[in-house]
């Protein structure tokens, strides 16, 4: 099926953002693991894997629309040196992704590509969930303090 005008470009922009997020979240997860924050490591690693699944869907959809997935392009991978900075950078990445997806939904509606629109809307719901989780963590840190928050992220012995 041939893509409607501009759809492949939008999908490749979303793919670039996903590929960037995969790397950013994976590094953040490994840093948390190295610091001993097992609970946080698992949650952030899970988000990286969610982004991989999204990238796979995007690649499949681009190929279905007879396009070529651009997997060579990445945006800047921003690495936080401490947990609060990681949350701040991840929140920015998710907010940027939500804008990109929203713009894609509008474009797909305009050109009549409702299958791609639906896919982007589903991805936007997941991004909303990620944003909510990050904002909750940031608020929790504000309320209970960083040390108390991080103490809860350490793996508990059996």
TrEMBL record:
InterPro entries: Bacterioferritin (IPR002024), Ferritin-like (IPR012347), Ferritin-like_diiron (IPR009040), Ferritin-like_SF (IPR009078), Ferritin_DPS_dom (IPR008331)
Domain Ferritin-like diiron: 1-145
GO terms for biological process, alphabetical: intracellular iron ion homeostasis; iron ion transport
Binding residues annotated for Fe cation 1, in chain numbering: 51
PANTHER family: BACTERIOFERRITIN (PTHR30295:SF0)
Function of the protein: Iron-storage protein, whose ferroxidase center binds Fe(2+), oxidizes it using dioxygen to Fe(3+), and participates in the subsequent Fe(3+) oxide mineral core formation within the central cavity of the BFR protein shell.
GO cellular component, one term: cytosol
Native organism taxonomy: Bacteria, Pseudomonadati, Nitrospirota, Nitrospiria, Nitrospirales
EC number(s) per entry: 1.16.3.1
Name of the protein in its database record: Bacterioferritin
Transmembrane segments: none
Keyword annotations: Heme, Iron, Iron storage, Metal-binding
Entries under Gene3D superfamilies matching the protein: 1.20.1260.10
Family label: Belongs to the bacterioferritin family.
Binding site for Fe cation 3: 50
Catalytic activity: 4 Fe(2+) + O2 + 4 H(+) = 4 Fe(3+) + 2 H2O
Annotated binding of heme b, by residue: 52
Binding site residues for Fe cation 2: 51, 94, 130
